[in-house]
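To whoever picks this up:

The parser on our side crashed when reading a file containing two proteins. I've narrowed it down to the boundary between the first structure block and the second sequence. Both blocks are reproduced below exactly, byte for byte. First block:
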Amino acid sequence: MEHYDGAPLTHFADVPAMAADRYGEKTAFTSFGQELTYAQLDAKANRVANLLVEQGVEPGDRVGLFIPNTNQFPPAYFGIIRAGAVAVPLNLRMDPNTLGYVVNNSEADIVIASPVLADEAQNLAAATDIGTLLLPGVTDDGVVNYSQALTDQPAEFDRPERDLGDIACQPYTSGTTGKPKGVLLSHENLLSAVEAYTKGGLAVDADDSMVLVLPLFHIFALNAIMSVYLYKGGTMHLQPEPDAENMLTALDEHDVTTMAGVPAMYTMMWQEYRGNEDQYDLSSLRYVNCAAAPLPDNVRRTIEEAWGVPMIEGWGMTETAPAGTIEPSHGVRKAAGCIGPVLETCDIKIVDPDGRETKLSTEQLQPFPDPDLDFEGDETTGEIAIRGPNVFEGYYKRPEKTDAVFDDEGFFYTEDIARVDEDGYLWMVDRADDMIIAGGENIYPAEVEEALYEHPGVAEAGVSGAPHEVKGEAPVAFVVLEEGADVTEAELRRFTLDHVATYAHPRRVFFVDELPRGATQKIQRFKLEEMAEERLGGEPLESGDEL
């Protein structure tokens, strides 16, 4: 990383201090009509750090963040890390029991909360081991009036020294396959990811602006967007909820140049835009970024043509802070599902998801892919394993889980399935644990979903496995139809046969009003499985369901 104050940037909380020196009174964030300049962000982060020290926080202590996308979040986040503590962003969309587990597992004795979540925060504190709640506008037993207490703190702070390997942030996994796991991200992990993005695809400068509606408790918004923008001097317009009309209005009114979202957000925005095109001027946009899951190719093409911008996709995980791959904003453009080449700070290998035998390594892709590889066969498809300075230090208090996902060479096994093409670009296939095995055939739900999206009557599609009397399991689909569409189950099932292998077509199609989604709008396949069991009455699919 670049030098700051005469020394290489080695402390993550120095990012806003460097930015304040460079950009001063330039607007860093807006929220609900209020602006926060770079200088104000740095000063407020110092006040937060001073308050935490006054409350007894020491280096290495965990401090929770229970705050939506507002101007309160950035100074609280950097103030925690500047004090030498570990920031624990809390997922606001977790159910109370799971959230309580996360708080207690993290050992966060102090939590900074938002006034718009005052009741939820106090209930959480009452149900967990939280010792002190810092909550604006409230003074009570165990509750400190955060806004008032900050006013008494100085705007300067003598931060403690921390090593690059010390932990700075501890976000948690979603917990869809078990208890959420605390991901230990060091100063080096966070800084390396920012460096990787600024060098490898996220073209951002001080003239850029971003509508940031992806939740800041999620690593993509937290580090790939917020930290990169702060480092480069851009302006972020924070929104706490993904409302299509509000997002489009913000793009128009603020002359926004970039946008980051997930497929469900873009689908919502497109449905609003196509019916009210004259209301929104999106000519300021340079590119938009789609993350978390592949966007159907027809939706991507339609949005790119209508808005006149490229849509950039990439891949990463909480465990990679989240750097991994990204499409370049200029150069070779490919279809939806392409997540670009590997960022230059990372090494990857494609391995067999069962035996972990290496199929393809970074050395075979750089500087040009090995011409002897069979890019049409199974040789270049498998699980992504990644290594680099951005890859996490392990799971908090879960050594057995940590050991299970690393090999002796330091590669982290992601359980994400991808293929590599002849240009060295990766294409996301699916999660290994989402794979459906039907009579020995591997079926990736995302491929079946892509086929369903080709039908003009399908607005959204989600696919999961369901028990089958002969094949063990087989795909079923849940579909949200376009308004006014008249489509039958049989029609959709027959339609998919033109786009996927016979063994991969959905044996049943269920029509629903909405799909179950998590905090980042990813489809929750475990809930689809529960819905399938309910729709099927607990009975397995039968051979007669074949077409």
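<<boundary where parser fails>>
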Amino acid sequence: MTLTRSHLFASVLPAFLVLAGAPQPAMSQDGPQSSGTGLDAPVSELLPPAEGTAQEPDGGHFGRNGPLTPREMDMARTAWSYFVESYQPETGLVNAVGSYPSTTLWDTASYISGLVAAYELDIIDKREFDTRATKLIATLRNLDLFRGEAPNKVYNTETGAKVNYANQPGEVGFSVLDMGRMLVWLRILKERYPYLANGVDNIPLRWNYCNIVEDDGRLFGSIVNGAGETRYVQEGRLGYEEYAAKGFALWGFDVSGAFDPAPLDYYEIYDVEVPYDGRDPRIFHNQNYVLTESYLLDGLELGWDLPRNDPDGPGIATQGWRAEFAHRIFLVQQRRFEATGIITARSEHQVEGKPYFVYDSIFADGYAWNTLDPSDVYQPDRAAVASKAAIGMWALWDVPYTDLLFETVANLSEPEGGFYEGLYENGNGYIPLQTANNNGIILAALLYKVEGPILDYLNENTSFWDMAYGETDIRKNRCLPQPMVVEASCDCEELPQPEPAVPWSEFKYCRPLQREEGIAATECRPEVQSFAKPEPRVVLPKTCRSPWGQ
């Protein structure tokens, strides 16, 4: 069975994950900083401003804009401390979870996001950045690939060797979702720092894409069955599949099949039509979790843009339907808080003890707010306010509700170890685990506030990626994209008109802009809410006998 993305530590780390006597992090006693609204204020005061009063981008980007406050800088330094404590100097890799020496491409990409943010925010200097970046590039360049095709799903961070889920020597296949995320961050590295471009290009040039990118543009990962045979399986569902596709598209691959949101369906929660993948899990053996993370990453890293240099800048999302869907994912979580009082910021996350990992979904398997482990067992006590989701939404949506999310997790950390995964919804305290993915995304969110979408198209020099092996059969044998040459047409009327993935009429929470390429979206923000307060539940007095005789 293929999962939404790899869950490396779902079943293999009981000795490490059961942390006894972990110190309780200090929780903030202050109210929200940016709005001035106290947490004891009525719900109506925590709602977004009326239409026309929200702050316009004014040449900036979606969400929060401006330099970090001293408190936010302290948070950034705290998040970076994870990558100091869990760094492996022999390989340049960072442990995915605490001191356990194992990682994936996804978690390594999150480390790169933390590294870029730490440098751009002046937490580390250029010497440390270059030392870490060049060491990591060298390791990624020389990874032992799964059966000579692509990076294995898991590597030992101390040795850089391929391992299985128990961190023992072995192979378990490759994840195309993890590869897509890595390709996003490799592209960010080479664009922001052209002097690293040669080394960066040499990493994906070693991979063989023939079994990864299908002719119709779909993406396939691989697994190893019980007989040791390799199976190639379509990987990813709505949200993650399109995000990973952007990583491949940034390097010139035709991934139109993975970009297409169809088959698409909706489930109404609090009057929000929540989009989810329409492929039936009973047939395709792949759960359709609706999670926050992929939409956050798309916004923070790419601005919900198509994978190309955007002349309109960061204030407009050129891939309008992605911005629209991201907004619905945010809005439904805010509305849950308004209706129930449950502070909500859901994402996949690690947990201490069994089952070690959960998909804390907005919708999954036919149910709203369904928290499932990798075996699809319901785990309601593991639902949590995920730190990365809370800070990510705070960065992308500047409204009072995200101030509340910020305060919920702002001090959920250790100064020399990073942020914890989150705070349980049921009052069972915090999740005493620190991870690369969580701290990397938090750093990216803080950098986003300062700079906007992190991918900048700054490197206009000739790319080795485009030119390598030009006189050989290697490009064809590895199914590398061929240099793209488009002949201009003098008769524009003959050009096909692209159809947007989401019709104009379905934009409910963003202002759509019609452009030659289709629909763009701007001014994505919550609407004014008017939900009635919860009504008391009528029960029989204890002196009365229940009508059903119980």
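After patching the parser it read the second block fine. The two ends are 44 Å apart (CA to CA). The longest strand covers residues 264-269.
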